[in-house]
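Summary for the steering committee. One of the milestones for this cycle was to obtain a three-dimensional model of the protein with arginine bound, which we needed before selecting residues for the alanine scan. The sequence and ligand used are listed below.
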Amino acid sequence: MWGGCFNQDTASSLAEINASINIDKRMFKEDIDASKIYAKALMMADVINGDDYKLIIDGLQEVKSEWENGTILICPKDEDIHSVNERRLRELIGEAADRLHTGRSRNDQVATDVRLWMLNNIPQLLNLTAGLIEVMIDSSEKNIDVLMPGYTHLKRAQPVRWSHFILSHAWYLRDDADLLKVFLKRTAVLPLGSGALAGNPFPIDRRAMAKELGFLDITMNSMNAVGNRDFIAEFLFWCSLCGTHLSRLSEDLIIFNTDEFGFVSVSQQFSTGSSLLPQKRNPDGLELCRSAAAQFIGNSTGFLATLKSLPSTYNKDLQIDKKMLFESFDLMSKTLEVLIGTVQTLIIDAKRCFAALNVGQLTTRLTYWLVKRGLPFRQAHHVAGRAFAIAEEKNTSIDLLSEEDRLNICDLLGDDLSEVWNFEAAVEELETSGGTAYSSVMEQIDLLKKWLQSEIKE
Ligand code: ARG
């Protein structure tokens, strides 16, 4: 492919690290599809004739079938997917194959193939992300009456619905999906026709190629086009951010699955056992989903480190892009699949959730009760705090304080407080949009369903 000016063989050590075929063969289809479109552009520009064009198209189709059937042979000198496809095409159709690469470089070719691969495959991640949102909606509908403590600093804070908790994670994923769609649009810009770095001397119609390959636009600077991998950096960042969200979800569920909490049980399908401790069922799936974020962040920062200070246009350093891309893509697919299954089969123990509520978590409600009777919030906060502390000193709970104790703190506490100590009412009080009351949880479910309809199932 490039041996003309060489009279010595490549050292085997270099050949070994130079070859990327075992990784980039995954783009065989995209490489062939882009080559077909390029051949067409060459024919339209009168660079190749109709006979050669037909030979090339049929030959490329044959090469594609060999990949699909698993009969293609990779030779020791094949560096990458582009070399294999071109070598095999020549074996099949002879000299016409030598015209296919006219004006093209592997630099604009690989940048095109990898963008095309992402456009073809990343929508799967969008669907999986939506799938996880769907099982969360399902869980929130089925468990709408389950109340549990909401936490800040991992300390029990206020009662919330299970549905509100699980949907709090769904909203992260909604934002992730929206962001991924933006990144996908930014990926759909065609570099083909940029040559090695300076452009293409033949009158090929780049916009026509873009249209046929499903790209939205073409790159406008060939030097930028062959050296730009921002779309991969963006995708790796996306995996880091979404992976971070998934790790927080995993951690919450791991905590709730402990014997101490017991709010949920991870199903047996998504647990594994211990080789020594016969009674153990461990949430290994969630732990692996929690740790996946570390690998996403590693790939994202690792790839930025590759790009940093790289000279303009193409440099072989860039070849690592596909390893990181495929690794993150595969891990993200599996992580989302495991989380979908885990949430779908999660057993929620409504009694344990409710039992973790105690009247101490209604101290905020007492504050609001006082505010509604005219006490300024800061003072109400202080009064409720005093009542809580005195109950604690007396080794009782705030709802059992004697009338005398209450009146010592504040006159208003002399009234009947029984309506304050009601968890259901405490939750229902928070009915502004975005709160945990039934109506606002239903509003969230409705909005998320509408979003799924319009943004995912287009
Ligand atoms: N396998 C290479 C890569 O993935 C293709 C581009 C090679 N270009 C070159 N000038 N050596 O980046």
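Key point for the committee: The chain has 18 helices and six strands.
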